[in-house]
Protein 1
Amino acid sequence: VLVSIPKKTLEMASSVDSVLVLGILGIVATTCILRRRLQLITGAFGYAVNLIECALWATSYCFFAMTCSHLVELAFPAFKPEHENSFEWLLLEVCLQAGANAVCSQVIRDAVHVLPVPDLNRDGKKLAAEGGGVIFAFIMFSRQPNWKAKVALLDKLMGSHFLVHRLL
């Protein structure tokens, strides 16, 4: 159907008119193709700019986690493997330090959001990296060897069927 309409138009028109119509149709088709390709290129560029912005957020969180997260450990007793730890006391220490880590995380998030990290793409899009994420948590917990040791010992004491054996 689409091919028959231009054929009928060409048959009815003079050769100059036919060339003019074909030229206009060609320009319209080329414009549509170029517009679509430009949208693809612009979208890819915007995505790349958002990735750079994510890197800025991650760098900021990494810096604060590296410099501040070990301070939480100072508020809790050091892990002593030779010391006999009661299960309940160890569980309390781990849970309290998790709460202190949450407080420290929030303080760091508030500090990072004060930094002038620009919206490079100017799209107003909130990126997942603005909240910290995996890199922030990994660095933060990596800087707390005593807490990691306590969690590992607690995990060993609990075993894989902890709740099943306790409840049955």
Protein 2
Amino acid sequence: GKPIFTATTPAPGITFHALAVIVRFGFFFALCYYALPPLTHEGVDILLPTFVIPLVAVSMFLRAPLARLLINEAGIISCALCGANSLQLSQSEGFVFPCIFCAFFVCREADRLWANQAEVEAAALRQGFTGRLQDAASSVAQDKATIFEAIQGLEQDVERAIEILIVAGMTTPSLRSSAAS
């Protein structure tokens, strides 16, 4: 069969970045544990709902790349501080929640990379796209003729569908798998 080329590649460096989040968590944990005096029990109890949970909530709504990065870093540092203080106060059960939230920020880092990749790919898909099928180009003239013959009479619907896919980010794995089935 004929090879089909897509504009989608896996987001590079996800594993590296996830490991880097864990390393940063470990670094800040050690820094907080050995360099900072412990907070009181009340201080630890206030830290998680005051800093980490709002960061989790805010991270769901901000789309700017720098904002995503800063939220992830603030979340990692807050989790490390919470965990270090829990252990300093001999509250080993209090260490579980910061680790769970750290796992959340590992996932957010992967999500940040996928979002950056999707933005790059969407821009590449839009490049040269006029929104009109008659402006479309093809590396094989026969392919273009075959496609236009197949969609004859449906041009406006196809143009609209292409625009929706570009806006939605057709390059996401879930949309690609939906389109493949």
Protein 3
Amino acid sequence: MKTGSLLTLLMGAMVAPSAAFAPSFGVAKTSSTTALGMANDKDLMRWARSSRSASADDRVVELKRPLGLILDEDDSGNVYVETLAPRGNAARTGIVKEGDIVTMCSATFGDQMWTTRGVGLTRVLSAIRVRAGPTVKLVFESPNETVSKAKNTAKTAQAAQDARQRAQAKKDSLLTELNKDEQKLKKGKFLGLF
């Protein structure tokens, strides 16, 4: 656990902002059990990075600072909730659970959000720290939801690929038919006039 940077989320108002997110040295990194075994990581990452807002089925939580949670990073760079403070702002919502993966975070200002999939703990903590205003919006997913989304994204990508292949096959078929018609016209009669 990275106590220097992680506990600052828990005690955010007590520590000066410049020292709050300083990296901790000499602390061993623990591996996480939230490593994602997705069918197609690239499709999910591409889809997630292109979106600038949460979808209707996402768990969007707006939290006041201090957030009342400790975040950590798994081997894939995904940030997850390691611990909830029992009386913290995150625990009071009843929506955030330990082990949930943070998939999106508020932009510096405005309503846009950006993906946090695979970006690492340092960038997520920086985004939370520089957010203008007293609240931060975060999108959470359980590991099961993440695997389900990865499968759905892979299915959608495969369906799109299949549709492109069918369209190309139809185009090729029509082109072949057009070439045959042109050959017939070159060989002989054109509407019985020649």
